[in-house]
Amino acid sequence: MNTYASLCAVGAERILGNELKHLGFKLESNAPGRVFFTDGSSSFDAVYKANFCLRTADRVYIQMAKYKADNFDSLFAGCYQAPWQDFLRKDSRVVVDKVRAYKSRIESEHTVQSMIQKAIYKKLGEVWGITTMPESGEKCDVRVYIDEDIVRIMLDTSGDPLHKRGYRTDGGTAPLRETTAAVLLQELMWRRKTPLHDPFCGSGTIAIEAALYAHNVAPGLGRHFAYEHLSFYDPNRVLEIKKEEAAKIRTDVECRITGSDIDGDAVQRSALNAEHACVTAGRALQLIGSDARIPRPEFIRSSFADLKAPFETGLILCNPPYGERLGDQSQAETLYQDMASLFTDFPGWQIGVITSQKSFQKCIGRYADQQKNLKAGNLDTTLYVYNA
Fold first, then answer.
1. What is the pLDDT of residue 328?
2. In what order do the strands lie in the sheet with 139-147?
3. Where are the beta strands (DSSP E) in the chain?
4. pLDDT digits over 173-208, tens only?
5. How high is the pLDDT of residue 171?
6. Which of 286, 261, 281, 283 is nearest to 271 (CA)?
7. CA 241, CA 25: separation in Å to the nearest integer?
8. Which stretches in the chain have pLDDT values below 50?
9. What is the pTM for the complete model shown?
10. Assign residue 365 a region: left if phi > 0, alpha if psi is -120 to 50, beta otherwise?
11. Quick one: which of 221, 200, 153 has its CA closest to 318?
């Protein structure tokens, strides 16, 4: 039975854990930005399914080893014991891409990287009877976490971060990550019957992620993953799972998902990205012989100040410009003051705003009913929630 680790934004561990349980996985433990889980089997279906289906995860790893090490000899020995020959190919190029140490006697990142790579290559060389690894194949990333002298060595199965769904060809300036948008929707417990509008749609990410969620479209159906370069990769089984997920797509649900932006280029960008996402879903449906289509979110050019609520209830969810992203802090604060009009223009609607500006509540003139701190990329952000 394999143990896996899924990475997420710090602050999103509970949301990711719930998602993993919904997919049928058993949670083992968690740490800031990491959730460990198992599927109770010796197959690699969990690798395929987690990469295809997780909306809020950044990456999925196989835990190759977990052991205690307080010196470099024990670090090397523990890594050597892992069955690397069952996962890597003879031409694999191993790269220890990151080392994270916390309250441990082993701290030197460079030395840890070197020792781990040497241990892996020594094991592979002895098992396969070769003195030099060719390293002519695909790169295989390994990550090391050392927490209070407990070492976890992880093998990446995702490749590009999972927020890169493949549908966004143009993100514009400082776009919101797809995984962050998915976290926001889950944090607010949005349901498909609730009208949703993003008045600062940018590249359409919030609306597109809402559409994928509403129609039960697995977000990874249109991309490739690092596990395709590992020795256990079974393309026939992957196709079977892909068809299983395609069969779960719902095209018979009604949703009211919209977005707007004062920038016409942003509106065009959002519509194009949404089209790419829905076409990918359509291609997945074709695998099971269906020619059904996913309804596209609608985007219009408009200032948020000119909007009026089209329904009595709904959800405003947005990622407005702020100092680090666009313009400067004073411009952002003026925008937040003007955003107070949303409360009168959308009475009966819940409003969620994510920003890194600590002055947001003061500027908008209201204290949020709920607050949630999230790490969005390299920024420390807060989700402010105003209930209807």
1. 72
2. 26-31, 34-38, 3-7, 59-68, 150-156, 139-147, 93-102
3. 3-7, 26-31, 34-38, 59-68, 93-102, 139-147, 150-156, 196-198, 257-261, 298-301, 314-318, 349-355, 370-376, 379-386
4. 668 999 999 999 999 999 999 999 999 999 999 999
5. 59
6. 261
7. 16
8. 324
9. 0.94
10. left
11. 200
What structural domains and CATH numbers belong to the chain? 3-156 (3.30.2130.30), 178-216+250-386 (3.40.50.150)
- Phi, psi angle pair for 34, to nearest 5°: -145, 140
Map tokens 């969005």 to a residue: 376
Q: What is the pLDDT of residues 234-291, one digit of tens each?
A: 999 999 999 999 999 999 999 999 999 999 999 999 999 999 999 999 999 999 999 9
User: Residue 323: its pLDDT value, please?
Assistant: 52
Give pLDDT, residue 305: 96
Distance CA 336, CA 368 (A): 14
Max CA distance (Å), the chain: 73
The pLDDT, as a whole number, for residue 175 is: 81
pLDDT value for 377: 74
- CA–CA separation, 23 vs 29, rounded Å? 16
Q: Compute the distance between CA of residue 41 and CA of residue 155 in angstroms, rounded to an integer.
A: 18
> Closest Cα partner for 16 from 42, 50, 48?
50
Taking alpha carbons only, the member of 212, 249, 218 closest to residue 54 is 218
Q: Which of 290, 185, 206, 192 is CA-nearest to residue 248?
A: 290
Alpha helices (H) in 172-328, listed in sequence order: 178-187, 205-214, 235-246, 264-286
Q: What is the pLDDT of residue 326?
A: 53
* Cα–Cα distance measured from residue 235 to residue 44, given in angstroms and rounded to the nearest whole number: 12
What does the block give as tokens for 279?
């076409």
Q: 37: which strand partners?
A: 4, 27
- With b for 16 or more beta-carbon neighbours within 10 A and e for fewer, the 233-269 pattern comes to beeeebeebbeebbeebeeeeebbbbbbbeeeebbeb
Predicted local distance difference test score (pLDDT) of residue 344? 97
CA distance 285 to 179: 23
Ramachandran angles phi, psi of 4, nearest 5° = -125, 160
Q: How do strand 139-147 and strand 150-156 relate by DSSP bridges?
A: antiparallel
Instruction: Say which amino acid occupies 91.
Output: D
Residue type, 377: G
Q: What is the pLDDT of residue 257?
A: 98
